[in-house]
Amino acid sequence: MQCLHASELMSLKLDGLLDEPDECRLKVHLTRCPACQNHWAHLSRVEALFADAPALVPPPVLQRNIMAAVQQKSRLTGIWRRSSLLALGMILATLALIVPVMLVIMSVATDPMVVQQAVGNLVRLTGLARSLSGALVLVLRALVGGMNWVLLPGCLALVMGMLLVWWYLLHMPKARA
Amino acid sequence: MRAQRTGGNVGGVVVNNEREWVLRACAGDQAAFANLVEAYQGPIYNLAYRMLGSGVEAEDATQEAFLRAYSRLSSYDPERKFSSWILSIASHYCIDRLRRRRHGSVSMEEINHWRWLPDRRPRPEELATQSERSSEIHALLEELPPQYRLAIVLRYWQEYSYQEIAEITESTESAVKSRLHRARRMMAGMLEEQSQMDSVEEDAQRSESKHAMSSCF
Ligand SMILES: [Zn+2]
């Protein structure tokens, strides 16, 4: 028997998985091979060292910390889900408003210029609604989730969005005229 | 013969209501999840402690493992043993952490936890392990590649069979057998080297004292 194979058998022996014929062969090899005797002695030392090490008891605060983190996570997940739904809802609502308006304009207006301008305005309006809803979602997440670092860009985006709406409302009549 | 096991069906203590808790936790019941945490924090903490070698890191890893389990509850297969599933999550996390440590990329969060706070008082369980030759155990485990270390920890501190270790580590029984064998060879080799170094040192001391004695006369 080769020493490497003997050491494989030793590992199985330690796990109680060695069958009798192999155990006999290992014993015979061990009586003749000082190197493997030495190896077995060191393996046994490792085994004894690990066997003496008792299970550790986790600190009492651990469970409380874990549950606090779980609650925080589920709160954030809820906010994330709700705000994503809100954003989706806003986009859908905008589309639901725009499509009928488009249809009405296209059926009423005869001048192609007017239709073109109306389409352009509506596309811009959709873009506005999208960025506004995005900003709202950011601010909502920041406010409820305690993620202060998103609060600033969120608020900035919201203000920019409002300015854009204002500018748009001021200029739309002229564009239509 | 082996270390006493704790918690869950990982540690002799059988968790009777486990199935019910898991189902309720999947339905969003946090109290049920708290029961699972209570039952399995021991085995997970022990696994993480032996893998990472420090109490603070073990606490972090235990918390992260439960957080990951919580967010993946919807993908949990009830046919699988919960203990194997959660230990598998914890094992993956510990291996990742060891790899990142080896490659020198440690997150700020980890730095805050264990690099810049070395002056904290030792916890009672750390004092206890100091007396149980934990430094020797840690020194041996630390030299093993992460996958070998994991196999050894699952074998000795969780008392899992080859088949269960294969399931947790997503490998085969023959791979587990080979990892355990190689890990043991490495550790026996380290002890052998250590004892050779000790005997060389002893010889040197003996000859030094002999020399000192002869120079006195
Ligand atoms: Zn031999």
Structure report:
The complex is a heterodimer of chains A (177) and B (217). Chain A has helices spanning 3-14, 20-32, 34-52, 61-108, 112-145, 151-176. The longest helix of chain A is centred in the middle third of the chain and has 48 residues, at 61-108. Chain A is an all-alpha fold and 177 residues long. With 217 residues, chain B is mainly α. Chain B has a single domain, classed as Butyryl-CoA Dehydrogenase, subunit A, domain 3. Helix content of chain B is 73%, strand content 0%. Chain B has 10 helices and no strands. At the A-B interface, helix 1, helix 3 and helix 4 of A face helix 2, helix 3, helix 6, helix 7 and helix 8 of B. Bound molecules: zinc ion (ZN). Residues 3, 6, 29, 33, 35-36 of chain A line the site of zinc ion.
Could you name the CATH homologous superfamily of chain B? Answer: PhyR, sigma-like (SL) domain
CATH topology of chain B: Butyryl-CoA Dehydrogenase, subunit A, domain 3
Number of E-type strands of chain A = 0
The DSSP helix count of chain B reads 10
Secondary-structure element sequence of chain A?
Answer: HHHHHH
Could you tell me the mean pLDDT of chain A?
Answer: 81
How many domain regions of chain A?
2
The count of helical stretches of chain A stands at 6
Principal-axes shape call of chain A: elongated
End-to-end Cα distance of chain A, whole Å, is 100 Å
Beta-strand share of residues of chain B: under 5%
Beta-strand segment tally of chain B: 0
What is shown here, in short?
Chain A is 86% helix and 0% strand. With 177 residues, chain A is an all-alpha fold.
Task: Please render the helix and strand layout as text.
The complex is a heterodimer of chains A (177) and B (217).
Chain A: H1 3-14, H2 20-32, H3 34-52, H4 61-108, H5 112-145, H6 151-176
Helix pairs in contact in A: 1-2, 1-3, 4-5, 5-6
Chain B: H1 18-26, H2 30-52, H3 55-71, H4 82-102, H5 108-115, H6 124-131, H7 134-142, H8 146-156, H9 162-169, H10 173-216
Helix pairs in contact in B: 1-2, 2-3, 2-4, 3-4, 4-9, 8-10, 9-10
